[in-house]
Amino acid sequence: MRRTTRTTLTLAVATALAVPAAFAPVAGAATTSSSGSQASSGLQASSGLQASSNAQLSSGPRASSGSAADKALVRREAAKAARVAVPKIAWKSCGAAPALAKFQCASVDVPTDYDRPRGATTTIALTRLPAGNPAERIGTLFTNPGGPGGPGVGFVQQFAGIAYSPEVRAKFDILGFDPRGVGLSDPVTCFPTAAEENAAFAGIEPFPITPAETSAYTRVMLRAAVGCMTTSPDRLTHYSTANVARDMDLLRRAVGDKSLSYAGYSYGTYLGATYAKLFPGNVRALVLDGTLSPEWYSGSDGDRRPVGVRLRQGEGSADTFQQFLAECKQAGAERCALAAQGDPGTVVENLLQRLKTHPVEIPLPDGTTMKITYQTAVFLIFQSLYSPLAWTDLATTLAALNAPSAARAAKSTVAAKVLSEWNRRQEEYSGLGSALQPCIEARHSGRPFAYPQFAADANKRAPHFGALRAWVGLACEFMPVRDTDAFLGPWNLSVKSPVLVFGTRHDPATPYQATRPYADLYPDARMVTVEGYGHGTIGISSCADQKITDYLVGLKAPADNSTCTQDYKPFTPLANSRAAAAKPALDLAAFGSF
């Protein structure tokens, strides 16, 4: 049987915002949803920013203590919250699967519209890993793995043991929740079934490069937009990050915590900033890793380019890709397969240009084949840049694609395994609807038919990756629906507590250049630079882990402008270490939402 790569809108377009890992719920999870529609396990995504103008990136003054308008906003939110009854959480077993034995699951109903607290409700699915030492329990650590559209239930159930140190797990209940509209929390859907969604996008490349591909791509985006508004109009109308923040504050009250302890990754840093704006007095601790610029995401800085352009993810990916090539060259032929074929940069550039006219068919272990086009290769590279732990396999795969057809079979054993797993994950993580928060809360260009020019301009700044990311959000241009309760700025924040902000030097998804401006939104942010590569710190920097532990447990924040290194250097063997244990999570990093 012959099969080609499945590239759906969810996969090709919906990876604008980044997450440290793609976390599918463990089989057998007992969380429930009141919706009868498809419950997607979600893609974890990729989000991103890169350098803007010097004016946009200047640190500027520290955030003020709060204007009169800010104080009025906080009072309005407090009044809304006071009208909502605090739900009771009935924790229970998550199912019979051995992997779930340590976890508890529940679901609660929250107001769909906080302006109508006694009206319709939305079901939120929860899970928690109870504190290992109840006698020294500090409280609950709320988490968000990114996206938007990252399922928090699966994140905690699969990776809490990797993401948080033993001391944090001993003293906090680690709580994950699928945000409204995601996963098991009354998911937003755009097609009656997953099969129909997959069929709608069959044969569509991750991004178009020819006029015919552009026409086909635009038609399928229009069809998707109509489907979303037809299938889930009520859910989309109340889908904003601000409502997720309101849900999180209600859940904080439900678990009995006086103030919020929170760890957010990528898009989760946007949720963190939104929570800090609406509920500044309710913050105990915020860990913000892989920062997403609120201005760039929302468009509140006046930038009317498509969201996929203004997030600067193309530039971030291009920078990280150059680091990948340099590290491969330095590692040499023994440790990087690409280096055995010549200068890695020249080899890959020649390969990508050749794939535009001569795609490569790779046999997979199950007897099927996978067609690798130029766009598929760029998308594969982009996703693999999320973790340096994946770079060796990426180099081996590219080397196999570059080999003459007669030699490819001998060289492609590892490549076939990598591509087979990559393809399986793409088919596993489906559900366009879970990625649509930017459609209803961010500003858009209003020029859907100008995307070819937007892509061409972006590609000049970031070859290959600029075009890939520029097409993100096209479906949003055809969706005239907004959540009137969304918050889109201004983003000066008044949280009094110190907050902990991490930025990785070469991050393809949330580029480092956005970290300092993000930190300066807070009156007292302690920024930590992680010298290394990839998206986020989970499982790859013991230095970062220790700073997070000290901060969450003892509220001991490091000095601003601190630095950490990564424990793993690209293209070196993985020892039997925590980094090796984290590899399954990090390899899934880019399979995400929007």
Mass-distribution shape: globular
Radius of gyration: 22 Å
Q: Report the uncertain regions.
A: 1-64, 587-594
Report the sheet-strand fraction.
5-15%
How many helix segments?
25
Q: Helical residue percent? A: 40-55%
Biggest sheet overview? 10 strands, mixed
Strand order of the largest sheet: 1-2-3-5-4-6-7-10-11-12
Compact summary:
The protein is of the alpha/beta class and 594 residues long.
Structural description of this entry:
There is one protein chain. The strands form 2 sheets. A 10-stranded mixed beta sheet has the order 1-2-3-5-4-6-7-10-11-12, sandwiched between helices. Strands 8-9 form a two-stranded antiparallel ribbon. With 594 residues, it is of the alpha/beta class. The protein has 25 helices and 12 strands. Mean pLDDT is 85; it is low at 1-64 and 587-594. It is globular, with a radius of gyration of 22 Å. The chain is 40% helix and 12% strand. The longest helix has 21 residues, at 211-231.
